[in-house]
Each structure stands twice: as C-alpha cells, then as structure tokens.
Design brief:
InterPro entries: AB_hydrolase_1 (IPR000073), AB_hydrolase_fold (IPR029058). By secondary structure, this protein is α/β, with parallel strands linked by helices. Helix content is 29%, strand content 26%. The protein has a single domain, classed as Rossmann fold (3-Layer(aba) Sandwich).
Length: 315
C-alpha cells in the first residue's frame, strides 16, 4: 500500500467523502486509487416479499427450482405490495485514476463499474494482467467500483425486504451524483460511463431507464437480450445459504436470505469458465473469495427490464 504523500504526486486524488480511507495502487500499478466507505442516503420504492424462508438449504434448493420450472408462478407467489424504504447505507468504494501524471491531468470522464452476482468490487481489479481498472487507466480513464449493497464490505441489511434491485438503482444514482459533483475523491467529472457485468449490467440498464441523464454511454457485459439457458445456469450454481458454507466462515454472520455458490468448484465453472481457456490459479482465487446474492434482489430483478426510451446515448 502506498502512502498518502506518494499518491498526492499524481494529482488531486483525495480522501474526500470517504471514511476509513486508504490509498493504494491497482493490481498492475497502472492506476492509483483511494478506497473507503461512503454513506449513501436512499429513498426507494421496494416490494414486500411474501416469503419467510429459507430455513435450510433443502428449502433454498426448492425455492430456486421453482424459478426453473416451466410456467413458473414463483414471482406471483412471492411478490406483494410496494412500500418505501428510506435509510442511509455504508458502501465500500474504490476510485482510481491513471498512474501517469499527464493522463491524470486530462481526466474528464469516469467509468462507473457495477459487478455481477457472487462477486464484489475486486472483479474489476482482480490481478495483474487481469484488471479492467488497469486497462482503463492505460487509456486515460478514471474508474469507480463499489461493493453492491449486501456484498463485500458494504452494509448487509435485510436480504428480502431491503436488498432489492430497485433500491440498488436508486443507491447507484446517488453515488453517481456524488461522483459528478466531486464529493468523492475531490475530482469533478463531467461525464460518467456506466459499465456493468451480468447482474451489474441489469442494474446499469435500470439506472439508464430511470435516470437517463446519469450516463453519457453504456457498456453492458455478461448480458444479453436472450435468456436461453439462464435458468439452467442459475440452477447449476447449486447455491446455498451463505452462512452454511464451510469454506467461507466470514459469511457466517449473515441471515439466511443471503446465498452464494455451492462449496464445490464446478458451481463456478459451469456458469462462468470455459475449460481449458482460463487460468486455473485465478479460477481458484475467485472461487475462494466468492460473495453473496440476496433473495430480494433475485425476486425483483425482472423489474429492471423495461425499455429505456429516454436514454439516447451510445450503448
């Protein structure tokens, strides 16, 4: 980890807006970054989830199976009325700028990176040679990544009634406004590009639909208009209640509504890795650090798939 004095020579990157701030380099040292927690006030309309479980992994498996069944009525059975949630959540965040004084001095746009399910912000800066943050920095872009609510080092509130897709959209919108205003890291950005992976792409699409002026462009990865094979992949992950996973003891404190990939590596490979075209060491690293999904997010994800008719920027 680099000192504040070392980082300050690369421009105006500061700890503004962050608590427990730390300065560090990206995995390949192409960017300098500041990490920390941001308090994010959110007011959002959520859904009352009519589901008390899962009490155990048998019940969770049946819950997931209900989604994969032909003509499933799972959503109708579990989705209730709407309600408003108003709260402030602590979100772990990472702002990075190029580790090149000339490139850093010309910054005007930033990429807003939203990770997918069972990962966290580290997805974007995973290892030297496998870092989106490094690649973006080499092209002169700043990046902002964060742990979605309910993942990583961010808050983990009620996984059914609070951690839902619509709230994630409104939370991201507040973060984007903070970034544009210079309230995070002390740098103002005129333009924000929304970049998502998988579930993060769905959330990014949802932001563009509800808040079309937030982004000047979108890049949606691990995401498609077609859904063929989606239910098979969802089931093949063999997800289990996170607090029951023997190899992830740090998740033991979470309530039962948080779940993650099952405890054998095939649960990760089936959905995301095509053998033999991947680095097995990095595969193992990702499996050993896998994160959580929330049942509320799963049940409300479909609400994001509405045409973003007011968004007219590049995709």
């Amino acid at each position: 980890m680099a000192s504040l004095a070392a980082i300050s020579s690369f421009g105006s990157l500061a700890a503004t807006g962050l608590t427990d701030a730390a300065f560090l380099y990206s995995a390949g040292r192409k960017a300098v970054c500041v990490t920390g927690l941001i308090d994010v006030p959110v007011v959002a309309n959520t859904t009352i989830v009519n589901y008390l479980g899962p009490a155990n992994n048998f019940e969770l498996t049946e819950f997931i199976t209900n989604f994969a069944r032909k003509d499933s009525t799972a959503f109708a059975a579990y989705i209730g009325d709407t309600r408003q949630v108003s709260d402030t959540f602590s979100i772990f965040s990472k702002l990075c700028v190029p580790n090149d004084a000339a490139k850093a001095s010309r910054l005007s746009s930033i990429q807003f990176l939203t990770h997918g399910g069972t990962t966290d912000h580290n997805y974007w800066d995973f290892a030297a040679g496998y870092s989106y943050v490094d690649a973006a920095a080499e092209q002169g872009y700043a990046t902002f990544s964060y742990d979605r609510l309910g993942t990583g080092r961010s808050d983990h509130p009620d996984p059914k009634q609070v951690v839902q897709a619509p709230l994630q959209v409104d939370l991201a919108h507040v973060l984007i406004q903070k970034i544009k205003s210079g309230s995070v890291g002390g740098i103002h950005f005129n333009s924000v590009v929304g970049v998502g992976h998988s579930l993060g792409s769905a959330l990014t699409q949802g932001i563009a639909s509800k808040y079309p002026s937030d982004f000047s462009a979108l890049a949606l990865t691990g995401h498609s208009q077609g859904s063929d094979g989606g239910t098979i992949g969802f089931a093949a992950a063999a997800q289990q209640i996170a607090n029951t996973l023997p190899d992830r003891p740090e998740l033991k404190r979470l309530p039962n509504g948080y779940f993650s990939l099952g405890p054998i590596p095939q649960t990760l490979q089936f959905a995301f890795f095509y053998y033999p075209f991947f680095n097995t060491t990095l595969f193992t690293q990702e499996f050993n650090t896998r994160q959580t999904n929330a049942i509320g997010e799963t049940l409300t994800l479909g609400s994001l798939y509405t045409p973003a008719t007011a968004y007219t920027q590049p995709v």
